[in-house]
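Module 6 notes. Inverse folding takes a fixed backbone as the condition and produces residue identities as the prediction. Think of it as a translation problem where the source language is geometry and the target language is the twenty amino acids. Below is one complete input and output pair. Work through it position by position during the lab.
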């Protein structure tokens, strides 16, 4: 993906500083917390003692770093992630003697602590954090335009890998699960994933996507289950006017026909056949990041869609997209990463609802200003951060994290002939866009599902599901 092509040129970027940037101004407010020794210790934060502590501190622009600042503010307002950092819970995960890399998580947590302890009138320099993210992902070295979604992917991946509770990954199982009913197969695939990837970061952001491929010749259906960190939604083309987020989600989950050169091989027909493919959500994540695919790439030139996508601030009900009956898939919006301008020159900001006050603010690099919730929706919205509504809703009286007992059995029993015997060959072709934002690391293919536009088919993205979890 051509990140540079869809990045930003900050209109508000200050003059570039030489390396070693950051925090040198007269109002530098990047006090160094104690650097981590062999064993990390928890800084003492007394949030209650300050009336000004609201997470309303801005981030300095280091030169084209608005994409980073926008994402950092969205994450800073992610309640559970904020608590994980501010209450130093992350230290428990980092304090493992066999762990070798801890700097990214440490700097990220320090930065969030600064954002929640500095006076609102100050702006914090993210330069030390930047040093670590570019060490983890060298593509972020320098001050080039970058894409906020790609940055989010890399950042979450890096944080996850440093606090992964799995220190020695077991060998990936090669056992075929195709004989299992879909629901059980999905559950087993999730279990396998968690045997290798298990962190607080993943607990928040990772869901599971189900893709179903059905042969039009013999009716055979194969399924694949893949974890996802966000969903990239295509924006429907309409002549004029607005579209809704539900329109985008319906297009994303719409049945696609794979024909012509796209034909997969059906293992039952033993031949390439016309098939239909469909996505559904098997497991809903606590935090759902929806990426509006405003940037389309056509060879060299990249264009941007400025379509106004109307999205709800409350009660985004995704139950119709669940792979099986699920009574708990209602989300509330708490942050938006916006991109204004064009592909050649643009600027990122964030709108965030404070997990403390519930008030919305605009985060524009170092400037933080109150805003009305009625202004949150706009045609600049690029990444939407939704939080799963409290399980105490009447729809899901049990709440909790029961991963083994799906509710609502019978509402969506697999149609005859669909359960079991998936075709691995077909499944493998079902998601042609698998690929790479991750660093090359064995066994991470599952995470790589990326949105791809391929020969007219919007393989928008990816990844997946289980409402089993919550319902
Ligand atoms: Zn077939």
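Target side of the pair, the amino acids:
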């Amino acid at each position: 993906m051509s990140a540079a092509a869809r990045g930003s040129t900050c209109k508000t970027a200050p003059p570039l500083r030489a390396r070693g940037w950051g925090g040198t101004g007269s109002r530098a407010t990047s006090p160094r917390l104690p650097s981590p020794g062999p064993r990390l210790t928890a800084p003492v934060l007394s949030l209650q003692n300050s009336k000004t502590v609201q997470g309303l501190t801005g981030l300095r622009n280091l030169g084209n770093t608005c994409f980073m600042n926008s994402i950092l503010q969205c994450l800073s307002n992610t309640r559970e992630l904020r608590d994980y950092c501010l209450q130093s819970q992350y230290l428990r995960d980092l304090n493992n003697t066999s762990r070798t890399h801890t700097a990214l998580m440490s700097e990220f947590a320090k930065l969030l602590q600064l954002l929640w302890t500095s006076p609102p009138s100050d702006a914090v320099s993210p330069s030390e954090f930047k040093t670590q993210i570019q060490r983890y992902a060298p593509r972020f070295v320098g001050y080039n335009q970058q894409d906020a979604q790609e940055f989010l992917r890399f950042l979450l991946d890096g944080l996850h890998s440093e606090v992964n509770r799995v220190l020695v990954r077991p060998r990936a199982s090669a056992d075929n699960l195709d004989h299992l009913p879909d629901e059980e197969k999905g559950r087993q695939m999730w279990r396998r994933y968690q045997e290798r990837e298990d962190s607080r970061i993943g607990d928040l952001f990772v869901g599971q996507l189900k893709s179903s491929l059905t042969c039009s010749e013999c009716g055979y259906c194969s399924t694949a289950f893949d974890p996802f960190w966000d969903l990239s939604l295509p924006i429907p083309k309409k002549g004029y006017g607005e579209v809704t987020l539900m329109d985008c989600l319906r297009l994303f989950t719409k049945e696609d026909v794979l024909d012509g050169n796209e034909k997969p091989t059906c293992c039952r027909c033993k031949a390439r056949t016309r098939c239909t493919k469909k996505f559904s959500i098997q497991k809903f994540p606590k935090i759902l990041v929806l990426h509006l695919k405003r940037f389309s790439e056509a060879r060299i030139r990249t264009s941007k869609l400025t379509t106004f996508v109307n999205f709800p601030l409350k009660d985004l009900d995704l139950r119709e997209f669940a792979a099986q009956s699920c009574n708990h898939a209602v989300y509330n919006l708490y942050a938006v990463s916006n991109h204004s301008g064009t592909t050649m020159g643009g600027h990122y900001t964030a709108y965030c609802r404070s997990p403390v006050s519930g008030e919305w603010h605009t985060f524009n690099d170092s400037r933080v200003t109150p805003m009305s919730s009625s202004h949150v929706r706009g045609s600049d919205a690029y990444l939407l951060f939704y939080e799963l509504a409290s399980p105490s809703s009447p729809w899901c009286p049990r709440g909790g994290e029961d991963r083994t007992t799906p509710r609502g059995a019978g509402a969506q029993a697999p149609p005859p002939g669909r359960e079991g015997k998936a075709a691995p060959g077909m499944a493998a072709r079902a998601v042609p866009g698998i690929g790479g934002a991750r660093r090359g690391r064995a066994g991470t293919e599952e995470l790589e599902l990326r949105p791809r536009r391929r020969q007219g088919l919007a393989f928008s993205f990816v990844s997946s599901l289980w409402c089993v979890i919550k319902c």
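Reference fact for the lab report: The longest helix spans residues 148-163.
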